[in-house]
Amino acid sequence: MAPAKIKNIILTIIVIVMIVMIGFLLFNLIATPEFLIKREIESISKDYYEKHFYEMFLRNNSISKDSLETSKEVQDTVSELLEKRVERGFSPVSFRQLLLYDDLKHADSANGIAKYCDLDKSFIKIYPESPFKSENYRIEYTYSCNF
C-alpha cells in the first residue's frame, strides 16, 4: 500500500474515533438524571392523559368515544364540560399515581425516579385546551427532586 493511502486510512479512523467520542461526551452531558427523569415523566404523562384519563373522563360523564366522533351534540357537551377546566385544570396527579395507574406498566421507571424524586410531592396538573380532543391539553410539572 502506498504511504498516502495509509495516511488517509489513519486520518479516517482518527476522525471516526473523535466523532464517536464527541457523541459519547454530548450524550453523557445531556443524559443527566434530571433530563432522563423529565423525559420519562413527560412521556408517561402524555400516555396517562391521552389513553387513560381522557377516556375515563368520557366514561364518567356517560359519553362513548364513538358518539364523540360522530355527534356534534356530544362534542359540544364534552367541550362544555372541559371548558370549565381550562383555567383551573384537573386535580394534581402525584408521580406515584402516575407510575402505578396502568397495572404497573411503568413500575420499572418508579425505582429510578424514586431515587431522585419524592413521588408523593412531585406531581402533574393537566389543563384541557380547545378543541378538547384527547391530544389537546397542556401539563404543568411540579418536581420535588434532588437533581
Description:
The protein is mainly alpha-helical. Helices cover 60% and strands 10% of the residues. It has six helices and three strands, in the order ααααβααββ. The chain has helices at residues 3-30, 33-60, 65-70, 72-83, 95-100, 107-114, and strands at 93-94, 123-128, 137-142. It has a three-stranded antiparallel beta sheet with strand order 1-2-3. The N and C termini lie far apart (54 Å).
The low-confidence runs, each spanning 5 or more residues with pLDDT under 50, are none
Helix content: 55-70%
Query: End-to-end distance, in Å?
Result: 54 Å
Please state how the strands of the largest beta sheet are arranged side by side. 1-2-3
Rg calculated over all Cα atoms = 23 Å
Shape, per Cα inertia axes? elongated
Oligomer description = single chain
Helical run tally: 6
Number of domains: 1
Strand content: 5-15%
State mean pLDDT (0 to 100 scale). Answer: 91
| Number of E strands | 3
Main sheet attributes: strand count, strand direction, barrel closure = 3 strands, antiparallel
Q: Helix and strand succession?
A: HHHHEHHEE
Structural class, from helix and strand content? mainly alpha
